[in-house]
Amino acid sequence: MDLLEPTRQAFALLFGGDPELWQIIWLSLWVSVAAIALVAAPSIALGFLLAKKRFPGQRAAVVLVQALLSFPTVVIGLVIYLLLSRRGPLGSFDLLFTPWAIMVGYMVIAFPILVVFTIAAVQGADPRVYETARCLGAGRFAASLTTLREVRFGILAAVVNGFGRAISEVGCAIMVGGNIAGLTRNIPTAIALETTKGDFAQGIALGFVLMVVALGVNVLLALLQGQGGLR
Amino acid sequence: MSAPLLALRGVRKVFGTRVLFEIDRLSVDEGGAYVLVGPNGSGKTSLMRILAGLDREAGGGMDFRGAPAAFTSYPERLRRSIVYVHQHPYLFHTSLRHNLEYGLRCRGVPAAERARRVDEAIAWAGLEPRRATPPAKLSGGEKQRAALARARALEPELLLLDEPTSNLDRDGRAQTLALLAQLRDERRTVIVACHDQEIIGLAGFTRLRLDDGRIALQSG
Ligand SMILES: Nc1ncnc2c1ncn2[C@@H]1O[C@H](COP(=O)(O)OP(=O)(O)OP(=O)(O)O)[C@@H](O)[C@H]1O
Ligand SMILES: [Mg+2]
């Protein structure tokens, strides 16, 4: 198969501002960003509590979140599908096959990543951070925020990884989004489903974008870490 | 005689079946400077952590300015009065200024007043040339001085310093020693845990000896 010609076409689409292509890219970006923005704060808070507090069932909760990490996204998609489908318990909201359904899926997928990364970051924090904050007069909440700020690069890594997982996952987005052109077709579903129909140029262009995004956020993370790389 | 700043009552620390110490009574006078001495493992750090409210498992309690408090339910307001500085102090990975004003912010000190006190703290610790240095890049002695200044700027009623000269070279120790003498002259109530003979020998410091589970006031 000739790869050169579709690649040339791919770049023509990208830089020619092909509306269909850019619409797909835009959908992927905003849905992922919105999902992470919504789920980040509660996940980080939960991660902090699971790392710091000792309470009955805490170990079990951590194991559960870790298990969620390795759940196939297509199964997560299936569960959300059943919940959102017309006859499901949340059917009345009419969310299935809309970007909102994908966003919910992304939130569920990013959640364990954010929690597990936060737990690791907080457990890696020097115990003196919290104590010092408390000794200087900070309340429990303020001292917790100070601890999170001290491990900010670990938290940032959590967010970047959650985002990267969401924007690139395909199983759940197909299940609950349905790859509807102009509505729910995003980068991974377009690559997975349209390329097999022979649309190589679009697949290559989208794959390229996805890699640039992945590279971009990680370079950004590294730059930030470098700037504050005091430890 | 005025009432003591602090009166310990039945302070008891156990690890499993091992009783680390049991202190029936001990008074700390306002404006007094104390050194807390005792062999390794006698419990100096443990005692200071209890006083600072970092150990909720200790038995007993204390009267602070006559107000009773149990260590198992350490009152939040006491955190504003008692400040403990770790043996190896932790400076937040922000800026020197932010570190120095952290506790002032917690106390709701207004920005202008904060700025004034931070400048004073920097000068007191002799850290002017290090203003822009990231705290993690400071030398051991500079970190120690920064932590002392950070605690002192809060004007605590009781300052607990855990081995402030350990791991410092001669210059670092000399500078920290000078700061300790200043705290004494300023009539701050301070307890310094240490093995450092030079600190122990500082004039005007009362010696508390913790050994074999008991504490005793020692003269000369
Ligand atoms: N969590 C713990 N479990 C069991 N024993 C502990 C624990 N923490 C401290 N200890 C023991 O308590 C004793 C007192 O420790 P502490 O750090 O208070 O001594 P110290 O007087 O400060 O010693 P040093 O002069 O070496 O600083 C030590 O024997 C230590 O091993
Ligand atoms: Mg000690």
What do you see in this structure?
- The complex is a heterodimer of chains A (231) and B (220).
- Chain A is mostly helical and 231 residues long.
- Chain A has helices at 4-15, 19-52, 58-69, 73-84, 99-124, 127-135, 140-150, 152-168, 171-177, 187-194, 200-227.
- The longest helix of chain A is centred in the first third of the chain and has 34 residues, at 19-52.
- Chain B is α/β, with parallel strands linked by helices.
- Chain B has one domain (6-218): Rossmann fold (3-Layer(aba) Sandwich), CATH 3.40.50.300.
- Chain B contains 6 helices and 10 strands, in the order E-E-E-H-E-E-E-H-H-H-E-H-E-H-E-E.
- In chain B, the strands form 2 sheets. Chain B has a 6-stranded mixed sheet, sandwiched between helices.
- In chain B, strand 9 and strand 10 form a beta hairpin.
- In chain B, helix 3 (111-124) crosses helix 4 and helix 4 (140-152) runs parallel beside helix 5.
- The two termini of chain B are 22 Å apart.
- The interface between A and B is medium-sized, with 19 and 27 residues.
- The structure holds adenosine-5'-triphosphate (ATP) and magnesium ion (MG).
- Magnesium ion (MG) binds next to helix 1 of chain B.
Descriptive labels:
heterodimer; A: 231 residues; mainly alpha; MetI-like fold; B: 220 residues; alpha/beta; Rossmann fold; 6-stranded mixed β-sheet; 10 strands; globular; binds adenosine-5'-triphosphate; binds magnesium ion
CATH architecture of chain B: 3-Layer(aba) Sandwich
The biggest sheet of chain A, with number of strands, parallel, antiparallel or mixed sense and barrel status, is: none
Oligomer: heterodimer
Question: What's the order of the H and E elements of chain B?
Answer: EEEHEEEHHHEHEHEE
Helix content of chain A: over 70%
Largest sheet of chain B: 6 strands, mixed
Low-confidence stretches of chain B: none
Within the largest sheet of chain B, what's the order of strands? Answer: 6-7-8-3-9-10
Count of helical stretches of chain A = 11
Count up the helices of chain B. Answer: 6
Each distinct ligand: adenosine-5'-triphosphate, magnesium ion
Alpha-beta content class of chain A: mainly alpha
Structural class of chain B: alpha/beta
In total, how many beta strands of chain A?
A: 0
Average pLDDT for all residues of chain B: 93
What is the number of strand segments of chain B? 10
CA-based shape of chain A? globular
